[in-house]
Each structure stands twice: as C-alpha cells, then as structure tokens.
Amino acid sequence: MSVPADAAANPVVPLYPILYEDFVRRALAEDLGRAGDLTSDSTLPPGVQAEARMVARAAGRIAGLPIALAAFRLLDPAIEIEVRAEDGRDVEAGTVLAVVRGAARTILSAERTALNLLGQLSGVATATRELSALAAPYGARVVCTRKTTPGMRTLEKYAVRCGGGHNHRFGLDDAILIKDNHRALAGGLRAAVVRARQTVGHLVKIEVEVETLAQLQEAIDLGVDVVLLDNMPLDLLRQAVALAKGKCLTEASGGINPRSAAAVAATGVDMISAGYLTHSAPALDVALDVVEG
Amino acid sequence: MSVPADAAANPVVPLYPILYEDFVRRALAEDLGRAGDLTSDSTLPPGVQAEARMVARAAGRIAGLPIALAAFRLLDPAIEIEVRAEDGRDVEAGTVLAVVRGAARTILSAERTALNLLGQLSGVATATRELSALAAPYGARVVCTRKTTPGMRTLEKYAVRCGGGHNHRFGLDDAILIKDNHRALAGGLRAAVVRARQTVGHLVKIEVEVETLAQLQEAIDLGVDVVLLDNMPLDLLRQAVALAKGKCLTEASGGINPRSAAAVAATGVDMISAGYLTHSAPALDVALDVVEG
Amino acid sequence: MSVPADAAANPVVPLYPILYEDFVRRALAEDLGRAGDLTSDSTLPPGVQAEARMVARAAGRIAGLPIALAAFRLLDPAIEIEVRAEDGRDVEAGTVLAVVRGAARTILSAERTALNLLGQLSGVATATRELSALAAPYGARVVCTRKTTPGMRTLEKYAVRCGGGHNHRFGLDDAILIKDNHRALAGGLRAAVVRARQTVGHLVKIEVEVETLAQLQEAIDLGVDVVLLDNMPLDLLRQAVALAKGKCLTEASGGINPRSAAAVAATGVDMISAGYLTHSAPALDVALDVVEG
Amino acid sequence: MSVPADAAANPVVPLYPILYEDFVRRALAEDLGRAGDLTSDSTLPPGVQAEARMVARAAGRIAGLPIALAAFRLLDPAIEIEVRAEDGRDVEAGTVLAVVRGAARTILSAERTALNLLGQLSGVATATRELSALAAPYGARVVCTRKTTPGMRTLEKYAVRCGGGHNHRFGLDDAILIKDNHRALAGGLRAAVVRARQTVGHLVKIEVEVETLAQLQEAIDLGVDVVLLDNMPLDLLRQAVALAKGKCLTEASGGINPRSAAAVAATGVDMISAGYLTHSAPALDVALDVVEG
Amino acid sequence: MSVPADAAANPVVPLYPILYEDFVRRALAEDLGRAGDLTSDSTLPPGVQAEARMVARAAGRIAGLPIALAAFRLLDPAIEIEVRAEDGRDVEAGTVLAVVRGAARTILSAERTALNLLGQLSGVATATRELSALAAPYGARVVCTRKTTPGMRTLEKYAVRCGGGHNHRFGLDDAILIKDNHRALAGGLRAAVVRARQTVGHLVKIEVEVETLAQLQEAIDLGVDVVLLDNMPLDLLRQAVALAKGKCLTEASGGINPRSAAAVAATGVDMISAGYLTHSAPALDVALDVVEG
Amino acid sequence: MSVPADAAANPVVPLYPILYEDFVRRALAEDLGRAGDLTSDSTLPPGVQAEARMVARAAGRIAGLPIALAAFRLLDPAIEIEVRAEDGRDVEAGTVLAVVRGAARTILSAERTALNLLGQLSGVATATRELSALAAPYGARVVCTRKTTPGMRTLEKYAVRCGGGHNHRFGLDDAILIKDNHRALAGGLRAAVVRARQTVGHLVKIEVEVETLAQLQEAIDLGVDVVLLDNMPLDLLRQAVALAKGKCLTEASGGINPRSAAAVAATGVDMISAGYLTHSAPALDVALDVVEG
Known about the structure:
The structure is a homohexamer.
Chain A: H1 21-32, H2 38-43, E1 49-56, E2 60-61, H3 65-75, E3 80-83, E4 90-91, E5 96-103, H4 104-135, E6 141-143, H5 153-162, E7 176-178, H6 180-186, H7 189-199, E8 206-210, H8 213-221, E9 226-230, H9 234-244, E10 249-253, H10 261-265, E11 271-273, H11 276-279, E12 286-292
Parallel strand pairs in A: 6-11, 7-8, 8-9, 9-10, 10-11
Antiparallel strand pairs in A: 1-5, 1-12, 2-4, 3-5
Helix pairs in contact in A: 1-3, 1-4, 3-4, 4-5, 6-7, 8-9
C-alpha cells in the first residue's frame, strides 16, 4: 500500500456519465418542478443569449465539474461548454472553472443545480485534501466511510478520490467489516471470522474493529487483512501499530479531524478514516457570473 | 406574517411516506449493493434477535426520525419499532430516540442508512433552530434557500421546518425571484415585472433582489411582494427596512450565520435567509446501540 | 394583473424536453408493447422511405407540436422534421403543421403516439382559446384547475397557456386554497388563515373559497390574496366583485362554459376558472398524411 | 362473436393492482409536489378525523372506483374504505359510491387525485355504455381504438369494458391492422398479407382497412380475419356487410357517434368503433362530500 | 400459414432501440456497480486507445448484435463501431462480428455486458435455427413459449425470430390459451370458449390444449383457431393432425428437442413448440479480442 | 479459505425482498402486459378458488423459492402460501415445494412468472451443486463468473450460493482482476499492479490472470492475492499450484465442466470457476399442479 502521488502524477479517472446522468436529471427535475423556471421563462425576452463563468469564490479542491456541467447539457444540448479546470486539482479563489454560452434561459435555469452539485462535491474534496495533506508526511492514507449523503455514495466517494483520499467500502457488500456487535452476536471473533471465510468469496477482504491490544492480537492470530483501531488514545494506538506491523494493515478512526490528524498519522497507522468528510464538510463556495447578454 | 410559535404549540406536520419511501429504498439499495450485507449475513447465526436503541450522541433538534425508521421497516416489516422522540423537538445528548427489536441481521443491515438519514436531517434542523433562536427575539423568520443537497429538496425543506425555520421557494416553479441577471437581460426591472405579471398565474408571488435603495424604491413602486436585500451592510439594511415597511416584505441574505444573525435580525427585516443550513450544516451525531442479543 | 396580449405579442415559452421526454417515451412504449409494430414490421419492405404531413383536420389552437414530434425523434434520431406551425397559434382546417421524412416504418410506428399527444393538448388549447376570447373583452383571465388528466399536469397546464389562458395552482404545494371543508375542520376561516400564515413560506399566496357576501367580507378583513367565488348567481357575483374591488383578486368558478362565460366575465371578476378545459375538452382532429413512398 | 350480456350477467373482471398502483402513485406525487398539501397541512388541527362520501353528481356508468380509492389507501393505509358501488354498473345522480373515513388531512389531500381518476374513467365508460345501448339492438359490438390518453391505455381500455364495449388492439403488437399506407408502401394488399402471414405468430389476427367493394373482395379472397370498413356511406356499408357475411368480421369506423350509431349498426356490421370514447368523452361529474369532522 | 423463407429472403426486422436501451443501461449499471471498473480505471494509463474484435468462437446463428454493441455506445458515444455481421445470419467459428475502436477503458468496461447479451441471445437463435432446420422439411414452424428469462421476453422472442422460429404469445394478454386448468375450473371447454368469445376483443385468437381425440373434436366443433396437442405419442399425433386438417391449426408440444423434432414434424403438425429454446439453450461462445493498443 | 460445509450445516442466508421484489414485479408486468391474463379473466367464473402445488418434476437443488412465491403475493396479498422446501437443499423428482391457495385467477396468472424464476435459478443451483460435488473431495471451491444473465446478477449469484458454490466478483467494482489486455495496455504486470495498489482502497483484493509459469512467478513476486490459471493443461496446472502454494490462492478456469472438474480439482487448485453455471445451465423442470377448484 502506498500513499497516492500528487494529483499531477495521479490524475483522477472520470466517472462514466452513465453513473451520474440520471442523478443530474433528477436534480434538474427537482428544481424545475411541474412548471419550469417561472422567472426566466416570464422575464427574459425570447432568444436572449448569454455567457456565464462558473467561478470558485473560495480556494479549494475541485470535484464534480463534469457532473455539474452536465446540468447545462442535459437541459439543452446546444449549450457550448468550455472547461477550464479539472477535477482533482486545487484552485485559487476567483478561478474560472468553466464558461458556458448559449440561451440565457437555459443558463439561468440550470445554474442552481449545477452549483449545488459542484459546491457539495468540491466541499468533500477540499476537506479530504486538507486531511490528506496532514497525513501524507507520515505515509498515512486518508479514507472515507459509509457515512455519505443518501443517494450520493458514488459521487461522494469519487469526490474523496478527487481530494487525494482513498475509498473505504462502497457498501455492505464489497468487504467484511466485523464490528463489536457482530463479534458479540456471533459468539466471539473467531466464530465470526471462521463463518465469514467459509461463506464469502475469495476476493473479499476482512477487516475487524478492535478496541484493546488483546482484541488486536486475536485478530492478528486469525489472519485478518485489516484492523480498525477505534477511538484509541494515541499511546495505545502506537502500541497497536507496533503489534500489527507487517501482519495486517491498520486503520485509525474516531475523532479524526484537522486538529488531530497529524498526531494520529504520526503513530504510524496505515490509514486514518473520517466520516465528516462526507457528512459534514461545508460546501465549497462556487458561483455563476453572467458576463454578457 | 408571524414568527412561528414554539414547537410545542406548533407541531411539525409529518410528511406522507409516499414522499420519501422511494428515497429510503434507494438509500438502502445503495448500501446493500448487489450482494447484501456480507458481514451480517456471514457472521450472525441464523435467527439471532436483537434490540437496539437509536441515540442522539449530541444535543440537537430532531428531524427525519420517521424517515430513518422507515429503513428498518422497508427492509423487514416484522421489525418492531418503538418511537420515543418526535421530529421538531430538542433532545439532550444521550436521549434514546427509538428502540427497534427484531432480527439482528436486519437491524445491523439498516443501521447505517437510518443513521445517515437521521444525522443529515437533524443536522439541518439543529442549525436552523440555532439561527431561529437568534432571530426570534427580533420577530424575524429564518428561511432556507434552494442550495440543498441534490435529490433531497423535499426532505431538507422539511428539516428546516423541524428546526423552526420557514421555507423559501421549493423550486424554480413556485414563485418568481427576479435577480440581477434577470433584470439585466430583461432590459430593466419594470420590463421584467410587467412580463412576469402578464404571464404567470395569479397565485405566484414576486420577489426582487435589490442592492441599493434606488433599486428598492423601484421595486416598491412596482408593487412587488417581497424584496431580497442582498449583502447589504447593516446600516443600509436598516434604511431599506424603513423604506419598505408596510409596502412589501423584506428578506436579508448574504453572509448570514450565527455570528451575524442577531444583528441582521435587529434591523427589523422580516426574514433572514441562509444557504448554509442545507448545504453545509454538520450532521447531528446519532448512533445505534445494540443492547441485547 | 393583466390579460395576456395576443399570441403574436406574447409567444408561449417552450417546455424543456427534460419535462416531457420520459412521458413521450412511456407513451411510445405503451403502444409498441413487447413486440413492436407488427404491421409495419411485417408488411413494409426493408428500407422503404416516406414523407408524411401532420395536418390539422379542424381549425383550432395548436399545443404540443414539439412534444408530438418528439415521438418520431425518440424512435429514430434519423427522422427529418420540418416544423411548419407553432404552439400557441391558431390554424385553419387543413393546415400542414409539420412534415416528417425518413424510414416509413418509423413514421407509421410513431404516428398514433404523436397524434394522440397533439390532439389531446391542442384540444385543451382550443377550448381555452374559445373561453379566453369570450372573457377578454371584459378584461377577465381564463384559468385552469387541478382537474387534469392524471400524469399530464405539466403538459395540460402548458396547453392552457398555449390557449391564452393562465395557470391556477400546479398542485397542492404551490399555493393555499382554503375551501369550505378546511374552514369547517379548522374551526372557522380566521383560525385557518392564521395557522396558514404562521406555517407556510412568505411566497405562498392564500386564496379562500366563499359562497356568501359575509364570508367574502371575512376573507377581505383577513387580508387574503384571492377569493374564489364559487357557484354564485350573476347578481351576487356583481355585488361580490364590488365588495372585493381593490382589496383582493376575484375568481369565479362553477358552471363556467362558453355559454355562460361572457356573462360571468361581464361582472368584472378578475378570473374565471373552468375544469372542463382539461378534463372534458374534445381532442382536436389531427392526422398524418403519407404523401410519398 | 356475440354481444356481451348486460352487466349483471357479465361482471367486469377487476384489474390487478399491480397494473395501476404505480400510475396512481405518480398521480398523487404529481399533485403533492415537493411540499405536500400546504392547505390541509397548515389549516387542519392535528388529529382531526373525517368521513367523506364519494358521490356521482350525474348519472352514468362507473369505472375505476377501486383505482380511485387506491389514492386514499396509498397515501395512508389506515384510511377505512367502504365500497358501495361497482365498476360496470349504472348509477343515478346522487349515488354514494364509497365512504372513506380516517385522517381528514389524508382525505382532503387524496381527494382531487381520486376524483380525477374516477371522473375520467367513468366518463369513458358512460360514453361507451351510451353507444353500446344504441348498437346492441342490432347485435353490433362497440369497440374502442388506440386513440387513448397517453399513459392510460390499460385504464381506458378497462373503462371501455366497464361501459359494455369491447377492446380493439391494445397496441401495435397484438394484432395486424393493414391500413392504406401499409398497402401502398408494401406494393399492394396481397404482398402485405403474404408477408405478414409469413412473419408473425400463429395467434395474430389480420384486419384490413378497405374503402371500396373491390378492396373488400380482395381482402376476403386473401382470407383475412376482419375488415375495417372506413367512412363508408350507409348504402355502401350494407353492400359490404352482405359481401363479407360469413367470410370475415366487419368493423365500421369513421364518424361514429350517438347520432349515427344506430343507423350504422343497423347495416349489420359486427362492430362499430369510435375514437371519441377515449379521446373526447367528457368526464363524469363526481365529488367528495365531507359529512362529518 | 407458411414456413418462413430462409434468412436471406426474409431478413429480421431490427428492434427499435427504445425497446432495449434501458435494459442495456441496467446491465451496464449492474456490472459497473457504484465504483465503476476498478481494474481498467486503475491500471490503464489515461488516454490509451484500443481496437477490439467481437468474434464468434463457435459457429452459430447471430442474434442481438446491435443490442450488444449498444453497450459500448451507451458507455461512450465516441466509440467507433464497425458492424460486420447481421442478426439472423449463420456464422462460422472465428467470424469477426464487429470491430470497436476508441478508449481502451471503455472497451474493456463494456466487454462483459456486450458479450453476455450477444452470447445469450445468439444461444437462443442458434438453438432455434437447429430445430427449425429439422422441422422445415416437413413444413412445420418452430415456435417459442412464455418460458423465457424474466425481464428478457422482448429480446428472447426477437432471438427466436433471428433463429428462423416464430413467436407464440408474448404474454398473457395477446391471445387466449385454454389449458386443462381453465377447462376444469370453467366447467368444461364449451363454457370456457363461450365466455372467452363473449368477453375478449375480435382480434384475439383462441387456442386450446387437448390431450385426447375427443377433446380435439370438441375443440374443433367449437371452432377454435388453434389446438395445442400436448405430449401426444406420435401415433396419436398423426390421428389428431388428420382430424384437425383444414379445421384449425395444430401445435405439438412436450418433449420437443433436436432428437424428437423431425419425427414430430413429420406427423404433419403446423407447429412444434419448445420451451428449452429460451430457458435452457446454452449461450453461444463469443469473445472480444483486443488487437491493438 | 475452506470449502463450505454441506447445506444442512451451512444454510443459505435469504436475500432481503428489497433486492428482488422490483425484479419480480417487472417479470409479472412483462407477462400481464397491458390487458392482463385474458384467458383466466375471461374463462374463470368470478370467485373460483383453487389450491395448487409447486412441484419439482426433476431432482435438483432448489434456489429462488421465496423469490418465485413472491409472484403470487405481489399479485394478490390474500394468497395463502405454505412453504414446504428450502433454498439450498436437494429435492427428489416429485417433491412438493410449496402449496398456494386462493383465487384461481391469481394462481393461474402468476404461475408462469413463478415457474420461470424458480426453474432458472434452480437450474443454476443444480449445475453448481453437481460441480461442487466433484470438486469437494479435493478441497476445491466452485466459483461463478460475471457471465450472468443481464439483469439477474444478484439472483444468479445467490443461486450459485444455494448450489454450494462461492461467488467471484459481483461486478467490475468489488475487486481487481488484471487480465492479459490490462497487462498489455498498462505496459506490463508490474506497472499494472503498482498503479492499482496506489489507486484503489485497502479492502480491494487483486487477482491476476496468468498463462505461464513465468507470469505466475512475476505475480507471486508482486504479492498479488489470487492468480487465475487460465486454460492450463493439467500438468502445467499442477506445477503452477506447487509454485503458488502458500503464496497466493489459485483459481483454475477454462473448459471446466462436469467431465473435467474432478481432474482439475485434483491438481490442488483452491478454486475452479465456470461460466456455464450461469449462462448455460438448463432450467430445472418445475411445474404447478392445480389440485382442487
């Protein structure tokens, strides 16, 4: 496992539109409602053209630009789109991310949907980049969780990648994560791990949540792939890392934030995970400036 | 127009399930993926029952409890649900919001979806309640914007109501909001307002964004219903309120947050609106404690 | 409020295709079923081309032409479409509305879906235009209701606009309309209006149904935006209009039809509303003439 | 082929809910929009119960009662529904068709959707029954066409059966209907019929549109199952019926309406078909009377 | 009724994309999941182009080529597709069916979806062609059943046509097939047929399953269109065919397979039907060879 | 990794209905079409009840029984269902799997959909069980592939588990499988593996397809989790297994079938994978016997 190179060396692979176009269509439909854009439809003279610049009002890491721009395209294929920025890159406040040209009506009708998408996803990316920068010096990866906005798992996981982070499980079905409840209800960790191995496919990794060194040792003895060191004080965390070194990967979680991240990463854990990246990161401030009628 | 009474006197009207069940189903499906909950399915012995408590880890205003609990019900109609809290009420940290009983497998499989829904919506409600408390002494309403999470407009607007706030437009189609771009592209405010009145239905109100007192006076002269006083310094805001008093409703926006809200409300505006309530409010910390196997 | 200028001065703003393409796709799929067009597929030699003219067999007001033509385009993007008429305009019997050229198979397979859409929507527009012509001399607007064909609210409201009418509420969520049942169950009109104002957003207008002058006076005193004068005899209607003049808008409903419309409009009401425009207007007779193989 | 017995002897077979529940859900969602029923939600005190009677304001043939009532049930499973009428039966003006009891809010929120469904479908059934009564003395069946409201094919065809009519094709894929365009483009009727027989399954009947006796003779010689005698004068129609007797079924179409139906049926045709039954029948006047709070 | 000419003379009519594109999109989405193609996305350098050949590894009858190729197009409209084969034709092992050129990533991501579609449908066509070849010398048609893969009725019925077979019913709603259960529950065949004729439309044929000559005679006397001779020994089948000759069509079913088909067809039945064509035919072995990076 | 215990010791975990109910609804809708079950609706007298037994006509391994029975329940919640067998168990020919009681109409309308689901999935399970029995003595697991029926990935993977097999990847997004094309386009295996590790999450395993011992050694040196030994002769396979022993898991693929399985398993590979289990397994013969009217 290795920490990702910087964005320049390791460009983010774009999502296939088939993975987000229906989502964007639903977002547009949610805003247009049954009657469409009453304001633009009634106030703009027919045929008015406009040019508008999508701008980052604050500095941050961009994520979701092609997704946001799809809002214009899906509303009106005749809109011209000039892309000036790239997902996975940092921008300064004031950077023009894209320029759209075409019917003023379309541009104003799609504006809010596009900005909501871009602001939300860039907010996730920006928070992830901040945390990654703190963890990287120690060789620790930043990973997200399943604490995502309902309906946006694919997009928010993508935004995490744009922020230089890595993805944890995408759902309940792509890896095993044995938590304390599973352990208790299964009659102990050994029983849980044995049953899991007997049942699931050969490409499914097993991660186990542990809270004590004794639990950690048991997990190591069972040969699990990853241990989730949950809410451990830094001192205990260091001991856990030492114990696990070379035997399984280590992930620290619980109270990870920009204030704590460096100290946690410095313990030598392989990964630090944080739910706030997807459930509480503030949106990046983005806007659309109409520059010409 | 009047500021809402407190929650006890003015209970939140629940959403019809038809307005959110498909959303919850999609959220569950997003987490279960193609293979379902590999961990619970493989580690739990068949037939294990459990009881779990949904708990607020932090104090806050609850929103979305019936929506979150639908995750359990939609996965397994046999789950027993005991509701102990109510949307639109404040709870202390540690409050048990609901107790669910039934198949341990179902409870653990639905857990994350339920918590994501409840945490996100209660986060919106909690931020709204905080702002409302600051604005209420001055008789100002807190209103939300269209800067919502894509796909969650109905739910987040509901959460704003749970927080004691009021809703602004639900979309582009339920009111007219003439912003500077419309004004410019329409050839002036008068032309825009005249065209709008000529075109749209008799139940559509007209709000106009203004930045100067001259613009405000023009809007008043045109008889618009509401003016959006955007990013005005407090002093200018006070003058605007005085000018508009008795002629149209006034809404202040731009940089509204818990630090600025009281001062803005003190200017006498009828409403203060804030996008961060829906796009950047941190999730409320909620958890599920399995208490018994 | 003002009566719309004629169609030439006030062109109908087209719907974004995103608001109807799924509906047209479902209509096509409903006709094609599981096996497609057995007749055309089996009888036409491969590769046969055709040209066909979409014609109005009767005089009327056109609505839905781009929607109807989408049926050809969605079935086969290679179909050439020449549009010769415009939504919101009157046509004589025999007018060619559009010419389509391409695979004969596609043209015949999409024919019925296209005609059903155009005929139904132009029927609504034609009935609306007829009523509008009767009301216009008195300065009264014609407005539609929520008595629309299930699933076609957006399209039929659009057709009403094409007919020179105006839209009433699009649904239960874009304005308040307090009817007698609400009044009775709420414990009187005052209680109902107070609760409504306390609860809903500042951009929501309130309309109240009244049947007597006393009720009308109460509504005026409460400052409601619009009164719905339901089923009032002409004489009472005139008194109501006089009472409401300058205080709120007046809408007459109940038994409005081409025979009664002028007399009702002559009372001075601002609007007359009629459910039959959307639930019972006969379809306009439109046809597709294949002119060349 | 035989004319259907009266409704009492030949009850209409109800549709499986799986064939209409999604349609009713979409209709409800279309009316509730994003915010739900603002009026009922804001004006009604919590917990108010009501009883309401669904009433036929005019005499007619009922169709769609279970479909309309599903609107209440799908909004709130706790609503009690007492069904007092039956699809496929005639009712007098004033007849109570069903009584619903439960939350006043639900009853008022579902009212319009339920009435729109019932009114539209009963309108189709009533028009069909009227035509059937005229045709029955001559042993002729009334059949509908594919000129249905987009999205409502299944429901309107059902309403035709409720009206005592019979269904023509449900779509392009359940029978062959060779019209003049097919004949011309295929290079003659013989070529068309031969190709059709060679291609389609053994359970697909072939109907051919004819306008002259020569065309009719050609169709008979080719052994087609049904001929569509389009727009023939009565005299020609009688000759056509005589020629076809015992060789194929005869269907008359074109200008069939209550004024012409008896005369056309009297020619001895097996069926008369009319598009207006589904595209232009006025809705039956139905209402919901709230009788008790 | 006539046996179809060979493929060259009777080309298969292609399905409209509207009938399968959603199915292909769902198939792609099912394979891409929430994260997309991890392997291609992570291992391929950005911008790598490729050319790939879709090849038949075994000889067979092709069906579904345009459907399979839609997988590439729907994932990325920029993929170039060169079609080298045609549905409804036989190919040798090794035949290149199509060449696709474009982003290597797209080609590899769509590969499995495309091959699954093509392999499954060509498997159906190949099995059908084999059976058709055995039945054709005796003038018997091969027909499929409703024993299709859930969700693939339209596509598998099309594949049967590609194999030179004919389609039986597409569902429960396009023809009557009275089986022994219906006969028993209806109180005898006569009652069943009379009720059916009284009820259903004039374009619905009636087929009756019979097991004895007495039942066959009863069906003939009732004038049914087709008899299904189920599981009859060859000798009995021959007698049945003799009895039915010129009175109704005959379809043999039960245990039809390549070993029995010729003997059954030799009895003179009009059709032989076999469920295995759609539920148990092995997929045709097709592959994608990447020829150039 | 261990071979699964027999079915008695290791019961199959049922799928949540949310994972298949929409699929069953679509399958029912596909069969009912627009008009429903013409035969049952027209021939059965109203109110006829029936009891029917779902029976295995051939011996096999059952999969999908709850899924098949959902067809009855979703069509009519009043149908009584008595389940007599269990997914993941073997049954003899003639075994009654379930008894359904209720409206004869519902039972006959749902019959084919239920049987198609059960037959198809039990066919997959039966083929898997056969292969598993051959591989188990050698401690080898049987695993499936992504060569599944489009739209049925979740269900067929479940059927494989019912057959005692294990699941390979569910899609392109839950594990890395580097095939020869990826290797070539990435510039060699090392580059591919390094890029993959750098990019994807820590719970994603890497499998590599190898064809020679040199490739195998390279994969082992890179520390991959699993090697896919594709189309190797038995002798080479044995050498590969010896080389990989203790270093990574080994999966044999290519031409695995009941004739070859034991010999391949005897080489000591950990897994044998076979596409035919899902794309070409014949359906199990199941039927519905109506026993009582």
